[in-house]
Design brief:
There is one protein chain. The protein is built from twelve helices and eight strands. The strands form two sheets. The chain has a six-stranded mixed β-sheet with strand order 4-3-2-1-7-8, with helices on one face. Strands 5-6 form a two-stranded parallel sheet. It starts with 6 loop residues before the first strand and ends with a helix.
C-alpha cells in the first residue's frame, strides 16, 4: 500500500538506438541498430525495484530510443514481465514515439493495455512545420488512433529555430484537432538570440492573448508557469527541479546505469563508469547551485533548472549550461507574468485560477509583481 511519504520512481530503459527518422534537432545524432536484450535487462530492473521499493509508491517504466517501437517485441516482453512479476506494485509504462511504425499488432496490443501503457506522441504542429524537421512524416501518423485512446495524454511539440515564428499557429492546429499540446524549445541547436528572441516574444504574446480571450482553456506549459514560485515570501529552496540520479535512473541498451536518459550520449563509445558514478555522487545533493554555480544570481533559478544530462553529454560538465537558453526562459516567465496579471483581475472567470482561494491568489499576485519589476531579458 502506498504511503503518503513515498515517491514515484522513473526507470528509463533504452530499448534501441535505431530510428527511422532523422529529426533536425535530435540530441541523439549517433544511431545504430542495437536492440536491448530482455533477458539481460530484467535482472537489472529487478535489482533497481528491490533497492528502491521501500520508499517508492509507484513506478514509471519509460521506454526510450531511437524510435522505441522498432523494438516492439522486446518492449512488449519487458512490460508484460514487469506487470506479471510485480502485480502488487503500481507500474505504469510510458514511451515517446514518432507514431510512424505502428503495425496492426502494435495497435491491438496498445489498445488492450491503454490504461497501463501510455504513448507520448511527438508531433510538431501542422503538416508543413512538422515535415520541415521530422523527415516528412506527417501523413504517416494516425493521429485519430492516439486521440481516441489517450485523449488526456499531451503530445510533445518541439519548437525548432525554423518554426519559432509559427508556435501559435502550430499550437492551435493541434489543439483544434483535440490534442493537449505541450510545446517546448529544442535544446542544443543553433539558436540565434538576435534573430529568434523577437520572434519567440511575439509568439508568446499571441499565446498569452489567446488564453486571456479563451478563459476555459488552461495555458500550455510553455507559458503556464506558476507565478507563486517567484513571490519573495515563497522562499523556494534553490534545489534541483528534476530527480536525475535520485528518483530517476536510466539504463542504456547494455544495461549500464545513468542518472537519466539525457546522460547516455554517444552509443558507439565505451561506457564511462567512473564518469557516471561521479555524476550520481554529485547529484546526491539537493542544492542545485553546487552543480550550476553559474546560476547563482539568477532570478528564476527555482523554475529554470538546467538539464544536467544534456550539459554532461554535450559539454562534459553537468553545470556547463547553454547560456543562450537563459534569455529564452526569461522571456517565457515574463510572458507568463503578463498573461496572469490580466487573468487575476477576474480569477473566477478563468479555469486556470478558479479553484484558487483568495489566500492562494496572494502569493501568485506577489510573484507576478516580482517578475514584472525585477526580471530583465
Amino acid at each position: 500500500m502506498r504511503g503518503e511519504s513515498k515517491r514515484s520512481r522513473e526507470i528509463f530503459v533504452m530499448v534501441t538506438n535505431h530510428c527511422n527518422l532523422a529529426c533536425s534537432y535530435c540530441y541523439e545524432p549517433v544511431k545504430n541498430r542495437q536492440v536491448i536484450s530482455p533477458e539481460a535487462i530484467k535482472p537489472v530492473i529487478s535489482r533497481d525495484i528491490s533497492n528502491s521499493r521501500e520508499n517508492t509508491g509507484e513506478y514509471y517504466l519509460i521506454f526510450h530510443g531511437g524510435e522505441p517501437f522498432l523494438a516492439f517485441r522486446e518492449m512488449k516482453e519487458i512490460a508484460e514481465w514487469a506487470w506479471q512479476t510485480y502485480p502488487e506494485l503500481n507500474i505504469v509504462c510510458m514511451v515517446t514515439t514518432n507514431g510512424t511504425v505502428l503495425t496492426p499488432e502494435i495497435r491491438e496490443w496498445l489498445t488492450g493495455y491503454r490504461k497501463r501503457f501510455l504513448p507520448i506522441l511527438s508531433i510538431d504542429g501542422g503538416r508543413e512545420s512538422h515535415n520541415l524537421n521530422r523527415s516528412g512524416s506527417w501523413d504517416r501518423i494516425d493521429r485519430t488512433f492516439f486521440l481516441e485512446n489517450w485523449p488526456l495524454q499531451p503530445v510533445k511539440m518541439t519548437i525548432a529555430p525554423n518554426t519559432v515564428d509559427r508556435i501559435f499557429e502550430n499550437y492551435l492546429t493541434l489543439s483544434d484537432e483535440g490534442f493537449i499540446v505541450n510545446p517546448s524549445l529544442a535544446k542544443e541547436v543553433d539558436w540565434d538570440e538576435e534573430k529568434h528572441l523577437p520572434l519567440f516574444a511575439l509568439e508568446l504574446k499571441k499565446l498569452a492573448d489567446y488564453f486571456v480571450d479563451h478563459p476555459g482553456k488552461v495555458p500550455c506549459e510553455l507559458i503556464g508557469i506558476p507565478m507563486q514560485n517567484f513571490a519573495p515570501e515563497a522562499k523556494i529552496p534553490r534545489n534541483r527541479a528534476c530527480g536525475a540520479g535520485d528518483n530517476i535512473v536510466a539504463y542504456d541498451v547494455n544495461g549500464h546505469p545513468y542518472p537519466c536518459h539525457a546522460f547516455i550520449g554517444d552509443p558507439t563509445q565505451n561506457y564511462n563508469k567512473a564518469g557516471a558514478d561521479q555524476c550520481f555522487e554529485k547529484l546526491k545533493t539537493n542544492d542545485g547551485l553546487l552543480l550550476s554555480p553559474g546560476c547563482e544570481d539568477c532570478f528564476i533559478f527555482s523554475y529554470c533548472s538546467p538539464c544536467y544530462g544534456l550539459n554532461y553529454a554535450t559539454r562534459g560538465d553537468m553545470g556547463a549550461f547553454d547560456r543562450k537558453m537563459c534569455r529564452f526562459n526569461k522571456l517565457r516567465v515574463l510572458a507568463a507574468a503578463e498573461m496572469f496579471s490580466r487573468m487575476v483581475t477576474s480569477p473566477l472567470k478563468y479555469k486556470a485560477l478558479q479553484d484558487k482561494s483568495p489566500e492562494q491568489l496572494k502569493p501568485l499576485v506577489s510573484g507576478i509583481r516580482a517578475v514584472l519589476s525585477g526580471l530583465t531579458v
